[in-house]
Amino acid sequence: MSYRRAILLGVSFCFVLVMLLALAFGYYAVTPKDREGQARVFVVRHGASLKQVALELQEKGFINNRYLFMLWGKLLGYSKKIKSGEYRISSAMPPVNILAVLAKGAIITHTVTIPEGYTMRQIAKLLDQKGIVPAQEFLRVCNDPKVVASYGIKGKSLEGYLYPDSYQFSRGLSAKKVVDVMLHRFKEMVASYMDRIKEKGMTLHEVVTLASIVEKETGLSRERPLIASVFLNRLKRGMRLESDPTVIYGIKNFNGNLTRKDLVRRTPYN
Questions:
Q1: Dihedral, 207, 213, 216, 218 alpha carbons, nearest 10
Q2: Is the dihedral of CA 126, 166, 159, 208 positive or negative?
Q3: For the residues of 12-32, what is the DSSP string, one character each?
Q4: I need a labelling partner for 131 at 20 to 30 A (CA). Which of 34, 173, 203, 265 fits?
Q5: Tens of pLDDT, residues 117-143
Q6: End-to-end alpha-carbon separation of the chain, Å?
Q7: Cα–Cα distance measured from residue 218 to residue 227, given in angstroms and rounded to the nearest whole number
Q8: Helix 95-104 vs helix 66-75: crossing angle, to nearest 10
Q9: What is the percentage of the chain residues whose pLDDT exceeds 70?
Q10: What is the pTM of this model?
């Protein structure tokens, strides 16, 4: 066999090998692990890398080979595009389709309704119960001085700024993202009142604090303007508010029974 012919055969062999590998690679991308697979929930945690997602997909039986999945993800430019959240996917889906769903961010959302008057601790507990974000993680963000300052808030925490409303949240979100959504809603709702607040000679934080007290003072919306007026007059005269909610807020595990001892207890809020 001549040298030239040997080179030609070698090149041909390499070409055929590459083509076979490409076909196998392509076949993997469009072939589901289990054509009879049922749709299941899969959660991409906040900050998870493509490598971590691929490993978990394989461990939970959605794909056959995490390495090929990662390679496809990199080739398609999805390495940094996979979004955290809760997804409904199936092992009957081709890996390339699973990648597309995760990159598109087609997440499942859950309605979470924050009632009026809920404190940060109550909101944190509710979010935890709904499986959106752990309570301690949420409270850590809400009490972080740097986070509070980043929103231009003068207080020590985000207490009073987490707007009560119905939200659509996905599991797997970061606590910071959840807070972002709630703070954005708050800013939308108070924007039209800012001029009036300035006319009253009050800061937004003072108004939020007073509104929180009034809201806890009565469950009837028609009574709130009168109560707010009473409190404002007391403040103008330098009087104490004499409000039970400020006492209750300082009691960590309030059992619903306010005692005389509680009324004279020294807390930052009483």
A1: -80
A2: negative
A3: HHHHHHHHHHHHHHHHHHHS-
A4: 34
A5: 888 999 999 999 999 999 999 999 999
A6: 99
A7: 9
A8: 60
A9: 74
A10: 0.67
